[in-house]
Amino acid sequence: MTSLDFLNESFAFCLQSDWEEAARQMSTDALFIMDKNQSVTGVVMRECPEDLRSVGVCALEEIEIREAEWDRYDQWALVNSQGQIVGWVKTTELYRHFFRIYKEKQANYSLELEAVFNTSYDMFYISDGEGITQRVSRSSERLYGYSPEDLVGKSIYDLERSGVFQPSITRLVLERNEKVQVIQSTRMGGRLMVMGTPVKDEHGNIVRVINFSRDITEEKRLQEELENARGLLEGYRQELRKWSQLTEQDGAFITKSEQIRQVVILAGKLAEVDSTVLILGESGVGKEVVASYIHNNSQRKEKPFIKINCSAIPEHLLESELFGYEKGAFTGATKEGKPGLFELANEGTLVLDEIGELPLSLQVKLLRVLQEHEFVRIGGTKPIKIDVRIIAATNRNLQEETRLGRFREDLYYRLNVVPVNIPPLRERTDDILPLLLFFKDKFNRKYKKTKTFSQEALECLQAYKWPGNVRELQNIVERLIVITDQDVIEVAHLPEIVHPMQHAHSRLSVTEIIPLKEAISMLENQLLTMARDKYKTTTRMAEVLKVDQSTISRKLGRIK
Predict the structure, then answer these.
(1) Phi-psi category of residue 325: left, alpha or beta, with phi > 0 → left and psi -120 to 50 → alpha
(2) pLDDT in tens, 495-539
(3) In this structure, what are the phi and psi dihedrals at residue 353, rounded to the nearest 5 degrees?
(4) Which of 26, 91, 316, 425 is the most buried (most CB within 10 A)?
(5) How many C-beta atoms lie closer than 10 Å to residue 478's C-beta?
(6) CB distance 142 to 153 below 8 Å
(7) What pLDDT, on the 0 to 100 scale, is given for residue 220?
(8) pLDDT greater than 90 at residue 348
(9) What is the pLDDT of residue 222?
(10) DSSP for 17-56?
(11) Mean pLDDT score of the chain
């Protein structure tokens, strides 16, 4: 918060010794009393000039976070960053203002929740402690053949007896007084994986049962997607293994910048402990390199090191990949069941890349793993204890995602034990030259070439901003090594995105020394003649040459 629309700017100052006389003559709404050190010691209000009152003093941008102190004073003087009073406000107005903001936020949250509830592909089904349906999402029409309006107010016992679904997960939750996960059959011939969760009051009584249902009817499609996801996961693992060489050679980082040296120092410290790590940085900066470094220098280095991209696998398959499933958990599941990545990484390290893409439904399960060091397979009931170090990575601003409700706040704080920020390549330009030379040598060996860069080409590559970071740099160097015919890579060989001006003016050349003014005039005349021959009108010429039309007309008149 930086300003208040109700800030009262009618005030004056006086010394403490003169306040009574000044109060009798005051023409402003408030008179602040100052001591000899220019600190505010009290305030006199116009409606009661004989009453010297205490007053709170607070920075304008901090007034909201100091809510617990509001009731200490009837008035607050608000100061700017220089400590100067910019206005004052009554405490009652503070409450009125922020209550209005709170109500607006609550209204927005309700709209967002309603949108999520009714647009989700999966189904939410909420009943009270007596089994009476309270709310159902729109997916019920597709999964049960009934609209929410048909189901609300109905008893789940009656619906179960009439065959709408079998069994009733709400009934099982109420009978067992605990969370239940079961496969449910529907009258329409569908099969749903349903998770029923009890909500209890302070006395331990169930007041609500919330069911989350996912359609697992399409056996063949699910099996095919499962196999595709496995192939995708393996391809991604291979890509990550290749990427692990981008800024790493024989375990050493390719760097000259102080920023990365500090990252390496921090990574070395983290390798000595088992804390959860959150690696932050843009795509392509080398987040997995840091994760590998931490694992390879830790006591877990001889144990599994498994990586998964949370955005590379469809949401409905990600849960089984992470947590595994028991035999018969769903149609198409293998007879033996399948361990998830958490089990496979036991005693080792699991890297959750793109953690910001993890669905909210799985964030809850991940939070339990971090808190309890155990989980339950899909279709299972027995908790499995694990000892896994979690390293999460993301290119998103998780604080902002948390504020927007797209990432759980409790999970964010669980992951953000030790954050590691990797700056983009454009902010550590000292690393560009070492990386260019490293990849040049690497691809020369790989393709049996002897290519080198000219000094001008190196300067041009060092001046480029590298929005794709180290990954983009590697790809461009490999391309230049492969497609350049000459042994020396010149500026003219560089991609246009790296040095667009070189390609725009590659036909310009200077063959002898002439006065600079004469050279500029010759070049200008050539450009004007070429533009006139190609575009015909002075308006179009001015557009292309990015000058006024009147300038084009004047200069053309000079060269005719």
Answers:
(1) beta
(2) 888 865 444 444 455 667 888 888 888 888 888 888 887 777 888
(3) -80, 150
(4) 425
(5) 16
(6) no
(7) 53
(8) yes
(9) 66
(10) GGHHHHHHT--SSEEEEE-TTS-EEEEEETTEEEEEE--E
(11) 85
Listed range (75-89, 92-106, 144-158, 295-309) with the worst mean pLDDT = 92-106
Q: Tokens in use for 204?
A: 């331990």
461 and 453 Cβ atoms separated by less than 8 Å: yes
Phi, psi of 72 (to 5 degrees): -70, -25
Q: And the tokens for 343?
A: 């089990």
**485 - beta bridge partners?**
none
d(CA 149, CA 71): 47
508 Rama class: left (phi>0) / alpha (psi -120 to 50) / beta: beta
> What's the distance, Cα to Cα, between the start and end of the chain in Å?
63
Distance CA 206, CA 404 (A): 30
Neighbours of 279 (CB within 10 A): 28
Provide the 3-class DSSP secondary structure of residue 387: coil
Q: Is the pLDDT of residue 6 over 50?
A: yes
Rounded distance, CA 373 to CA 356, Å? Answer: 21
For residues 44 and 51, the answer to whether their CB atoms sit within 8 Å is: yes
Q: Residue 385: beta bridge partners?
A: 374
